[in-house]
Every structure is written in C-alpha cells, then in structure tokens.
Amino acid sequence: MIPKIILGKGPKAARRTIGYLFGPGRANEHTDPHLVASWNNFAPDPGRSPHRDPKDVEDQLARQLDQPVQMLGDKAPKYTVWHCPVRAAPEDPILTDTQWADIARRIVAAAGIAPDGDEEACRWVAVRHADDHIHIAATLVRQDGRRPKRDYDQRAVQKEARQIEVDYGLRRLKPGDGTAAKRPTSKEHFKAKRLGQDATSREILRTRVRRAVAAASSEAEFFAFLKATGVNVRPKTEPSGDVTGYSVTLPGDVNKQDEPIWYAGSTLAGDLSLPKIRQRLATTGPEPAATPPGNPWHQATAATERIPHHLTHGDDGAAQGQLVALGAALDLLPLTAPTAVRGELERAAAAFERATRSRIAADLDSARVLRRSVQAIWHNPASVGDGSGLAMVIDAALTAVGFARHWHRTRQHAQQEVAAEQALLHLQTAYAQIAGPVLDGLAHRAPTLQTKHRLAQHVRQAVPEYAERILEDSAWDALAAVLVEAEKAGHKAATVLDQAVGQRTLDDARNPARALTWRIQRLGQRHAPGPRAQVQFQAAMPHPAPGTTAPGVRPTNGAARRH
To answer: One Pfam family of this protein, by short name (predicted)?
Structure first.
C-alpha cells in the first residue's frame, strides 16, 4: 500500500482539489467518485447527490473544508491543503468502502491531521473513484484555529501503511530509509502515456544524468555528455560566479504556458546534486601510480570480481563505494551491448540504481579501477569484439549483485535488497542471450578427444571438488578451447588453471565451468610468463610430502582406487 503526501497552496487550493477528485481525471480514469469517510461522517457528497448540481455540492464541500482556514484570514499558513492518495497493489483484493473508510481514519490519525478522539482536529474527506485507491484531502488548520502537529507525517503514514498491510492481508512493501529517488507523479505518468513515452521525463533525465556521471572524468565532461545526449542544461550560478547547481530539461517538455519544465539534479535523486557529483568525479581520475595498459574488459571483470571480497571483508564505507561503482558500470554497459540485449541491461541498471544508495557514506576511492576501465570501454566501442568481454563482465556482475543483495539484507536495507534481486533477474536474462553464442563459438574450436582427456586431468588436479561438475557441463568444450589457445600463446595449461583458481574461489561461482572459461581466456591473452617467472611460481606452490597430496587437493580417481 503506497501513500503519498502532496501539499497545496493558494486561496482556492481546497476547491481545486475537490474539483479534481470529483472530476473525470486527467485520463478519464475517475469512475463513480464518492465519499467513503469524512471528519464528521455527514459531509456533503457530490458523488451521491442525484437531485443537486454536482458543482454546487462540490462548492459546498470545499467551503466546509476551508472554513477554519478562512477564519484565520491573513494569518493562514502558506500551504493549506494536505492531499494523500493511498493505493493498493494490483494483486490485492478489492476492499469495500467501509474498509477504505477505516484505512482513511488510520492514515489521518497517524499523520497528526485528525488524531483519534480529537473533535477539534482538521477537517478531511476520503474520496474513492477506483477499486484500488482513495484520495484523502484535508485542510491544514484545526477547527480550533491551531496548526496540526504533523512532524514527520510522511514517515508516520508509511509506518501505518505497513501495519495496514498486515491487518488486511495486503501485499507487504519494504520499508525505506529515505534515500530512494523521488517517484514520478501521476501527472507525469499520464503525460508520458499521452505522448507515447515508455518512461516519464523525470525517469529519462535521471538515466541520462547517471550515465553522464558514470562516463565523465571531469565536471566539464559531465556537462558535455549531458548536452550530447540531447539534454538541455541550466547551471545555477551565484553572484560570485561560482556554479553551485544545475537543472535539466528535455527538448519539447513544456508546461501549459509552453515553458520548459526544469528538474534540479537533487530532485532527480539525492546523489545527483552537483556537490555529490563533484565528490564522485574527484575519485575518477587516473590511478596515482602508473598502470600498464591492458584490455579494459579484462580489467573491468577483475575489478568486478573483487567486489564480493570488499562486501564481505571491507568496512561499510568501502563496500558502499563498490556498490556505487557497480551501479555506474551497469549504467554504461547497455551502451556497449548489442541492440537485442540492451533493453534487459537498461532494466537491470534501473533496478540496481536503488541498491547504490543507503545511509552509509560511500568511500569511492577503492573502486577507481572499475570506474576507469568501464569508461575506457565506453570511450572505445571497437573494443566490444565478439561479445566475450561483455559476457565475462556480466558473469562477474551477477556474483557481485548477489553479494550486494546479501550485504543489504544483513543491514536491513529492505528496498535495496529487493532492487538487487530485481537487477539479478534482468542480468541473468541478458547473460544467457550474450554468453550462449560466445560459448558456442568457442566450443566449435574444441580440441580433439585426446587433448580434452589430457586437459581433463589438469582440471581434476586443479579443482578436484568441482572437476566432474565442470567436465559434464555444456561449457566444457569452450573451456577446453581456451586452454588450448592459452597453450598456443606460451602458457602451460596446468599453470594457467592454477592461476585461474587462485584468483578467486569457485565456491560462489554460479557456473564453475563458465567462470573458469572467462578467467582463462583473460589469462591466456596476457603475455606468457618467462621461464624464470614460471620457476618462481612453481616454487611458491605447496609441495606435498611423498605419498601425500597438496593441501586442498584430493587424490585422483586412480589414486583413490589404489588406496
């Protein structure tokens, strides 16, 4: 159940609200509007007065609601109308008028509008014009002339809504922490539908601003990227000449006066204000120490694979910073993907956006490598290649998002946990569409049975606990192919397998065969180590005593049979 508070101001605010509630609606969606409850239980009902002109009854109802406000004259508050739509979920049972009346009374009591038993409280009405929701309208002056005590009314109403869901057996929504982005209004939704848009202007702008932040390494680049995506930008400049904020609008998005509708960055989302964006950009510069250039897909994958470690072993600030960087990576990935999967990746990014914010302050510095590598991919579309890079990044992201879900769950971030779960579903769909053709292409280059048998022995030695699962997997041919390619590049199959396993445990891999395929493909494309490096690597490996096996390595099937 979703309640949403809207405040109205002006001398005719009450009349405008009543006119809207008993009118046809912006899309003729208001059917059979009528009162289900009121402050005195006998307020005039424009929807149930068949022998009177409905407009006259609306005037009468608005006057009665507004009477305490009018008595104050010039001392009336700036905002005089409290309007709260309350909507049930689509799968909820249809409630009766009596049930909606009880819900309305509980909501106004929780908000401080009309506490139980307070006969001098504010005047209010509850109007129903659809099966799934009501609108509560109240005036913000009590009948004794005082102001209502409605401190933190949004929070109190949300808390009461959660209890109503329990009491009526309705769908139970997750409590929030106040960090969610502002939802589009009903008016914005209707406008988008009227214009044939899949999303509201607010949502389109939020996506474009997030992508610009993810792609930019400086403030100038951020504004340039926004303009390049068709967004009009208006900086907020102080008399000193300092730019302290910005607003954005879409071309052609105008109000009734044909004026552009501007959205401040902070109203799109709390982390999209200019000060917050500057904090992000300050940690997006190059690494302090020079790093050798490499394949950005491989670098992005390696950085994404490290996120679970940060979430399980790092402090909360660093973990939150990793989630912000992962969200930025997901924002940019759709721009590098084939058209067929772009929609799923966009939906994954939109869902995970909620999982990138919490009350925990983010330490962004540790995620610098991931941000820079994804930016490098975006700046160089030619690096997309055969899709293997994208597949391996998404494979790593699936594990990272799964850990993000668990991280939020342990900290009771309910909405963020649900957002991560939704992102997982979209990522899984995209991964299946991308990875399938890539793995099939690798499988067509699979070596002979004799070579596969030799490689299988290496797999059994490297990962005995996963060996049979890997060898029976449909991705085994692809894994064998990349092992042979690594050998052709000068690597030893046994060594590169040990390196792949040593990078990160396979315990949390969704598919060990695929995880090893991507890792070995990355390792195999690096320069083969020289003889001295190979000797040092072998020397660092544990050497079992005669008749024993190395720690964590099980005997081969033949050895088991001999014993």
So the answer is: Relaxase
Which parts of 116-218 fold into alpha helices (H)? 153-168, 186-194, 201-215
Residue that is written with structure tokens 């052709």 in the block = 488
The C-alpha atoms of residue 56 and residue 323 are separated, in whole angstroms, by: 56
Residue that has been written with the tokens 């702008």 in this structure: 205
Q: What is the per-residue pLDDT across 479-516, written as a single tens digit (0 to 9) for each? A: 999 999 999 999 999 999 999 988 777 877 778 999 89
Using the predicted structure, report yes or no on whether residue 543 has a pLDDT greater than 50: no
Burial of 403 (0-12, 13-18, 19+ CB in 10 A): buried
Q: What is the DSSP code (8-state) at residue 260?
A: B
Structure tokens at 188: 């914005």
Among 380, 394, 304, which Cα is nearest to 341's? Answer: 394
Q: Which residues of 466-486 are buried (b: 16+ CB within 10 A; e: fewer)?
A: bbeebbebebbbbbbbbbbbb
pTM, to two decimals:
0.71
SS (H, E, C) 192-255: HHHCCCCCCHHHHHHHHHHHHHHHCCCHHHHHHHHHHCCCEEEEEECCCCCEEEEEEECCCCEC
Helix (H) or strand (E) holding 126: strand 124-130
Yes or no: say if 408 and 355 are a contact pair by the CB < 8 Å rule. yes
Please tell me the predicted confidence (pLDDT) of residue 27.
58
Contact 151, 112 (CB under 8 A): yes
Say which range, 50-59, 115-124, 276-285, 528-537, has the weakest mean pLDDT. 528-537
At 3, list the tokens. Answer: 């309640």
Chain CA centroid to CA 247, Å = 22
Hey, is 28 helix, strand or coil? coil
Nearest Cα neighbor of 87 from 140, 180, 32, 165 is 165
Token pair in block for residue 213? 């932040």
Rounded to whole angstroms, what are the CA distances from 540 to 492, 495, 543, 549? 16, 12, 9, 16
Residue pair 122/113 in contact by the 8 Å Cβ criterion? yes
19 pLDDT band (50/70/90 cuts)?
A: very high
